């Protein structure tokens, strides 16, 4: 099941940026791992912002919530979830079936 | 170059729905063709709405604009474009390189 | 899997209200049937508005989308979907397990 | 009488998180107790957020306000209340009457 | 129980204004009657707008909804309901008790 | 002359709450006094919020501004003023004349 | 007593523009008359819009409402009223007193 | 050339209020001086807020920007500029010509 | 003097599109002429929308308003004007001086 | 390829302004350099604000993102990117071709 998450990171001034960099590095590894398992399908940077648009393929809303809240930078994130479904014009299923 | 387009279709009451259905069928074919050329990477339906989230891979902003405005339902669409770039956590390039 | 849908009905002036009433009656029957199957868990009227807050328990986002778009008044609806998950403070699972 | 409360928790950076965890644990117990008395009908987590959608069944608006402001995390909450009423399509009364 | 309703009337251009005037006259009588019964406590015009701020004292949310939807101009109204409760600084109870 | 003021109190985390409580107690006394003089007609708590809806009957906008800015919690308030006038459906004048 | 009114005119497509022009000419005469009486202090066009920012000096909110609703184009207007008062930095009173 | 500036002052809690008062006193003198030169035409307090609506008559946008950014409280201000032009209903030019 | 205008064209369904095309062709010629005189500095299409971002160099706000309202599609436009001034980082003056 | 970036700088109270001034001076040099290379086409100050409207001509969205995030004041910026394309009414290409 597919969900888009628009994730914006807001680090308040005065935060220890070394800590943020460490969390960020940890997050990148975690995100790569979740992409390899097929749970985190896509992640794109939004130009000009510390924000990304991600697409997740999960078994349940609870699984999505657990992934998002386990991200190291989650305490600094604002997340907007949008439930997605198959579009009649999409050929993604067809391609995969080849 | 990647762009997300959030496309919402608004058909005012009183519109000839047979015409809209015909335009919609035409659009689905056009969208499938653009997906096969690799210009239209993804299209997902937003649950509960006549709206989709699409990702395009185009050579220029002009190409994106031309694709969007050539869609049969364009006169009924509200389109929000977001410029995307590679995210440091993304493995999409790596996968494609295999 | 649980989703909240906030559903607002907007009937433009000049619409044939007899037709709307007939669609509305049809919708009430359909909603009652879906409640009996356990797909449509709750429906509450928002005070002062032609709008409701509903909670659905569906197997997939696609199922949710199909239910919503099959509603007789769907062409007059604005729908906002929110993905829900179990709250650690909820006792609903416990109660059901008794 | 039914009210929906959309409750968002915002803990500013720099807050003592041990204190927040303690308040949160206390709140979960309080919420479970209010569910058992039938005052707090439902509580669902909103995916990706420290927020919930709750439905209360109270005797008066004052009772609702007292419950909300007595929550241990109330000083960190933003609450939006929506007054609900019975929907003609609802079968909840019927079911309960069986 | 007290509720504020902010009521805005929007009559689309081209509407038969004689009909609107008749509905409006009917509504004024109905509103005066409800004020005399103590259900409709206050009604004030918002300067510069076809809109009012009203306060209702009702036994339930359902009663409020029934009053609002029975207003002759209801099909042209946008209504925002706010649930109110006693303020610790209010002396209204005290005055009434004298 | 009547004005509605929607008053929201925002106390930033870390504020000395004993000081806030003292200001709040002072404000309640001041508000009661102004109600007795007939300047502050109504004050209602908005359910779930540290906010109120008040109605003032003042001789001028300057008098209203002076009252609002003299409130002990004014530095923590966000105030939205709405100018009100007599509604043709109101019977308040009539009642008072009896 | 001073009030700012931000007045936006929205004429829906298909309206008889000869009628609008006639109402507009009538309104200009009425506005000039009210400026000469000192009730309508200022009127400025907002660049790029069919909208103006006006300042009125009236005896009461009711007088303001009556002026605004008597404007020939009022049925096409959206009006936002802001209550103004004397600013401590203003020299307008001083100048007038010379 | 005329511009409206809506100026809102936001002083974060914890600011040295003696310093703010000193800046404010300085600003009032500066504003009075600019009114006497005819650059700052009007300044009105918005009721209930630390905010004003001002009208400036300047030779260029750069002059306007320089005036605004030279205000002692500028670091605490949020400024919204609206470009104004002569309204066909205005008699201000006529009056001045007498 | 520089102003940005964000211009959005909204043509309601049912409009005679031949007429719109003729107005649009006329507007393009007018825009080109104004660019050649140096009044209309830039015009860029916003991707995915019938909208543009334009920059004007005019002698006064009145001149800007006259240009905008004389555009053939003005009745279908929503225009947002932003007053611009020289940025300390800009080299545009320097380049022109070479 | 053209992009507009609306850049707003927000420096929280309590920030070391000497540091901000140094970053700002550095940024002006960097911006001038990028203008000379033709990457940063325009930069205009928005009147009354610490904000600018810039137009960039870059080879890719990634290049745009890299430029923006390398700005010394980037941690204090809020950036809104708009993808632009050639407008049929523009003569900019023609002029350049002369």
Automatic annotation (TrEMBL), chains A, B, C, D, E, F, G, H, I, J:
Keyword Nucleus part of the UniProt annotation:
no
Pathway where this protein functions = Aromatic compound metabolism; beta-ketoadipate pathway; 5-oxo-4,5-dihydro-2-furylacetate from catechol: step 3/3
Q: Which family does it belong to?
A: Belongs to the muconolactone Delta-isomerase family.
Entry-linked Gene3D superfamilies: Dimeric alpha+beta barrel
Q: What is its EC number?
A: 5.3.3.4
Gene Ontology molecular-function annotations: muconolactone delta-isomerase activity
Catalysed reaction per UniProt?
A: (S)-muconolactone = (4,5-dihydro-5-oxofuran-2-yl)-acetate
Q: Which UniProt keywords apply?
A: Aromatic hydrocarbons catabolism, Isomerase
Q: What's the protein here called?
A: Muconolactone Delta-isomerase
Q: How does it assemble?
A: Homodecamer.
Q: Identify the Pfam families for this entry.
A: MIase
The cross-references to InterPro entries, in alphabetical order and at most eight, read: Dimeric_a/b-barrel (IPR011008), MLI_dom (IPR026029), Muconolactone_d_Isoase (IPR003464)
Residues forming the Muconolactone isomerase domain are 1-89
């Amino acid at each position: 099941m597919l969900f888009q998450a628009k994730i914006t990171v807001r680090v308040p001034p005065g935060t220890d940026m070394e800590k943020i960099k460490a969390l960020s590095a940890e997050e990148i590894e975690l995100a790569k791992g979740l992409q390899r398992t097929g749970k985190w399908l896509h992640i794109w940077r939004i130009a000009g912002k510390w924000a990304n648009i991600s697409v997740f393929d999960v078994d349940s809303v609870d699984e999505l919530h657990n992934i998002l809240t386990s991200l190291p930078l989650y305490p600094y994130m604002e997340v907007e979830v949008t439930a997605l479904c198959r579009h009649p014009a999409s050929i993604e299923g067809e391609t995969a079936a080849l």
